[in-house]
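1st attempt posting a full record on here, be nice pls
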Amino acid sequence: MRNHPTARFIIRAAITYTIGILVYDLFLLPYTNLDEILIHGLVRISEWILSVLGFQLLPHTHSWWNTIHIAGSNGVWISSNCDGFSLLWVFSAVFIFLNGSWKRKLIYLPIACVIIEWMNVLRIVSLAMIEFYSPKSLAFNHDYTFTILVYTVVIGLWYYWIAYWANPLKK
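the predicted structure (as tokens):
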């Protein structure tokens, strides 16, 4: 197995991902407010976009700070599963073991993470609009449509790295 680079890559990425998720689930989630910070930022940016688009938003109550309510809808609730952290970690756990210089990776990684989180904002905005216009289709779009779209972006970012950034002189 030592001489099989694909197996080594998969094992290293899987171990890194597992360690990261364990740290997240056992330490970051219960003992820090990282999720609250991420969710609060996602809610504020998403609500700003919805208000620019002309939607009337209901004010937050203390217990529903992580819910976006367009007037006339049930709203959408952003949980710790929706804040994008685990998706960023999946991307990063694979990315750090791809070919390429660390200097270039340190430039690309934050850019890619911002792109992934902006996709998450667009997903939240879209789900809030779907809840307003067609609430019966919310679950399908949440579970399938946006999962496919967001993972397509993640795979596209890996591909873009491999094709254009990892070995820029090999063209």
